[in-house]
Amino acid sequence: MGQDGTSPLAIRALERMGVSEVFDPAKVAVVMDHSSPSPIEGVSALHTMMREFGKRTGATVYDVGEGVCHQLIPEKGHVVAGDLMVGCDSHTCTYGAINVFSTGVGSTDGAAAMASGKLWFKVPDTMKVTYNGELQPGVFSKDLILYLAGQIGADGATYESIEFDGPVIDKLSVEARMTISNMAIEVGAKAGLMNADAKTLAWFEGRGEKVPNPQNADEDAIYAKTLDFDASAIGPQVAKPHAVDNVSPIEDVEGTPIAEGVLGTCTNGRLEDFAVAASILKGRKVHPDVRFIVAPASRQILLDAIEAGYIQTLVEAGAALVTAGCGPCVGTHNGVPSDGENVISTANRNFKGRMGNSNAFIYLGSPATVAASVIEGKITDPRKYLG
Amino acid sequence: MELQAKAFKYGDDINTDYIISGKYKFKSNDMEVMAHHAMEELDPEYYNKVKPEGGFLVAGKNFGMGSSREQAPLVLIHSNTKAVLAKSFARIFYRNAINTGLPVIECDTDLIDDGDQLAVDLEAGVLRNTTKGTTIPFPPLPPVMAQLLADGGLVEHFKKHGGFNL
After folding, report:
1. Whose CA is closest to B30, among B20, B18, B43?
2. Most A CBs within 10 Å, among B30, B33, B39, B67, to test the A interface
3. How many domains, chain B?
4. A125-233 has which CATH code?
5. Which residues of B touch A (CB under 8 A)?
6. Does the pLDDT value for residue B125 go beyond 90?
7. Does ipTM come in above 0.90?
């Protein structure tokens, strides 16, 4: 799989390799999501190149408006439990939540995989992260993974595979689990795997013909490291500029003024993220000094959120709805912040310049934290809005 | 072959957004043009400093964290960066560097100061700090990666062998 920032380089690498066909068109997909619809002619040319690649090779093309690659690949049934999958995007680790060993690679690796169906790997050590206790009201899976980043740092799991486990993970929906696996790369991990359970298997139903083949951890597995956290003691977390591991409890940043809020991305652009944001914003208004940008992770999620009334609620509250896709996360379009502005976002990265302006400041939190914050115009603890 | 150049030293956790910002990666396919923005977030003068005579990019731990963008090693190559030396690397950048033919060396970079003259012989596995008159040990690349780098990257490897031959 490749997206519009990486596929063009992969397509050119294939050409340079002298390869004109992909090994199995049914197993190759390219997605226009990072800069989509095209904001400039250079990107339009890249999109054309991807469409022509699809026509030439038979690979699946997800065009403008279909959504973010990391929502589409699982949603459309391209992967099932037990698969090995590579994508030319670092957040390919998202599908670990549905028991897929998926990992991000570069474009030349992607080209080699598309050409041959093969790639070389070093088998990583595994770190086991267990969340015990019970998730508290106003606390979400996003807070759990931000907390981990704060604890172990941006290189805390470099070249390791993380296995997430424990009663808290068991109780999470598949969507909420994806938020956690999505951010495994933010601590350097190669994969962020979870066992497949009944919820996982139910999630695959109706998505395609591939039969799940769960690969769950052995009872006597040996781990390079094990970490145990008590989720009952974890409150809402916020990653502060300019690093994902620069994490604080929300109490430390409450009151920080914000100019923009973002709900969406491959981390938190799913239906239940819209549900919680809508529940907070129902009958309320976005603060007049705040732009609230909302990007569903896929067309299907947009349709479901329309049907459930969430879009109506969010737009009435003052949200600006943009195309299903990556939204403003990558800094190419859809809401580049101005100099000196603070942004609170549900995305997975807050590096300097990430959203297209090096002089802006990005905070990361859960959809509930973002929804509460856009009402007040400052970073706000969502627990006051959630009964 | 021995590579000789000056060290340009930066810190820990340098992510690929800092190596080449996302706002540029869509603007051009021409890496010569993109290379002007290499390392811009940390050092807007990087290209001008390194391009004329070449240089070694020296960093701390976890170099190349973040996005999988292959533009990161490519803009370094096109800005005349001879190799990246760091205490540790993020895995996707590391793979991308090998695949595109940019040497990456894991070593104790505390032994190198900004501006030091370095000499590297990758085949022999020798890194000398000529300014300080010291030799810095570094582990050899695993055989798979050494083979890819010796072939000039993954594309050249495929052209040479018609597929993977590792």
Report:
1. B20
2. B67
3. 1
4. 3.30.499.10
5. 13, 15, 17-18, 21-23, 25-29, 41, 61-62, 65-71, 88, 90-92, 95-96, 99-100, 142, 144, 153-155, 158-159, 163-164, 166
6. no
7. yes
